[in-house]
Amino acid sequence: MSSDAIPESTLPYPPVYKDKRFVVLSDWDGTITTQDSNDYMTDTLGFGKDRRRAGNLEILAGRQTFRDGFREMLESITANGHSFNTCKEVLRKNIKLDAGFKDFNTWCTANDIPVVIVSSGMAPIIRAVLSNLVGQEVANNIDIIANEVDVEPNGGWNIKFRHPTSGYGHDKSRAILPYRDLDSPPLLFFFGDGVSDMSAARHADILFVKQKDDGENDLAAYCNREGIQHIIFADFSQALKVVQAVVSGEKTPAQVLAVGRA
Fold first, then answer.
1. Is residue 29 annotated as a catalytic residue, yes or no?
2. In whole angstroms, what is the distance from residue 215 CA to residue 218 CA?
3. What domains sit in the chain, N to C, each tagged with a CATH number?
4. What keywords would UniProt list here (predicted)?
5. What is d(CA 93, CA 108) in angstroms, rounded to the nearest whole number?
6. 0.90 exceeded by the pTM?
């Protein structure tokens, strides 16, 4: 699942922020939220946690692509007869926000730092849950780069991958690498937690990896295996202190990465 080849995108990208000194890009599921919404759907509406977790480990080991494993997860939900609208409502009721994200996003907005969600999930679900958690006005100011959904008249649905020819389905490096071509590229913070973030992990200036209480620390395991420097954080209130130190010039990226924890 190499990021070297540029996969064709079936969906448009928002404009690159050309005049910013700093940009925050973050995974959504399990990073901005306390629980992965797609895992939640699979565990409760699809083929269950045990099979889902076994698939995650196959992806981490490189024996299956994220795209194919993720498609199998979602197909198990539709096979059980759950419509897309039903899934959205289940998630709106059950998915919670990271306790520190609102303050983190407010500080970034006040300091002219864009926050962009880069997700391997589905944009309609993210927008529905995000607006429920932070309010429509705040949600409207956050760009979302994600997959889409094809919903059939009978209520059935299928994921529409942003990069269907890529083993990632959505190669998140493609949301980061265009910044490298700018004359004055911003410093890029990236936040993630799982196997869907592996394509982005080595391309950020400062990578934050969320510590998971359930032991599913797949991105941390990948970074440790590949020798990718990262900062472990429990919630965005911890991460905010690190971001503030870098933005103010109090600390350099090398200094905060050397510590390895927020």
1. yes
2. 9
3. 22-35+97-259 (3.40.50.1000)
4. Hydrolase
5. 27
6. yes
